[in-house]
């Protein structure tokens, strides 16, 4: 089987390099990246993964990085015979730097890739991934990767474990209400109070031009409310589709994820 190969492109502003000479170190000392070729599942889909290994003190980000950071971007559109590809994000860690919240991964993260193929033969998966790796400052990195996907490969236990670490689907009714607020809007999400205690939440919208601040959680009268401000480009309220609201609740024991919400 052909081994995964990668090319890393490092892009830094000249001023940043001058301000922090330590960032000029070899990127291979900071980050190792590879595609794990995975296995062909009984339903005909193929499960592969992107594995990132980072040096101590370095991290990368979840799809919603928090108050700062660079979310990952995946592009495997150049792969011949590819019908569709879904990226799964294992439950991240949440940390604070002063009053700034970061959502991401330290040391190692494996992103499972569920792939729908044209046909059943072996194929080459080729893609480009853009991520940020951060310590005191963030470095934007472009990864060009490829690996051979074999139809006869065995199950990869590391990928299987990463897939099991993805937030579980939330159940039960969930409502949301938008109202005007300074610099944009306020979004309030309400759902039945879960049995376990969630101490963090993240809200994502399907419009990348909108920024959502760190949500506030409040539990009372058998309900859990998640409230956050949304900054809009004009500072004025705008139409937002409820189907495009994703709410993730985090607890020490794991996370649950809700897609969409209904009117209150």
Question: In words, what does this structure look like?
Answer:
By secondary structure, the chain is mainly beta. Helices cover 5% and strands 53% of the residues. It contains two helices and 21 strands. The chain has helices at 14-19, 157-164; strands at residues 5-10, 31-40, 46-54, 59-66, 73-75, 82-87, 93-97, 100-106, 108-117, 123-134, 138-149, 168-169, 175-181, 184-192, 200-204, 211-212, 216-220, 223-231, 246-251, 254-259, 262-263. Strands 13, 14, 16, 17, 18 and 21 form a six-stranded mixed sheet that branches. A hairpin with a 2-residue loop joins strand 7 (93-97) and strand 8 (100-106). The chain is globular. The termini are far apart. 25% of the residues are buried. The model is unreliable at 1-24 (pLDDT under 50).
What secondary-structure arrangement, pairings included, does this model have?
Elements: E1 5-10, H1 14-19, E2 31-40, E3 46-54, E4 59-66, E5 73-75, E6 82-87, E7 93-97, E8 100-106, E9 108-117, E10 123-134, E11 138-149, H2 157-164, E12 168-169, E13 175-181, E14 184-192, E15 200-204, E16 211-212, E17 216-220, E18 223-231, E19 246-251, E20 254-259, E21 262-263
Query: Which regions are unreliable across 5 or more consecutive residues at pLDDT < 50?
Result: 1-24
How much of the sequence is in beta strands?
Answer: over 45%
> What distance lies between the first and last C-alpha atoms, to the nearest angstrom?
54 Å
Please state the overall shape, judged from the principal axes of the Cα atoms. Answer: globular
Helices and strands, in N-to-C order? EHEEEEEEEEEEHEEEEEEEEEE
| Assembly level | single chain
Portion of residues in helices?
under 10%
Class from secondary-structure proportions: mainly beta
Sheet of most strands: 6 strands, mixed
Mean pLDDT: 89
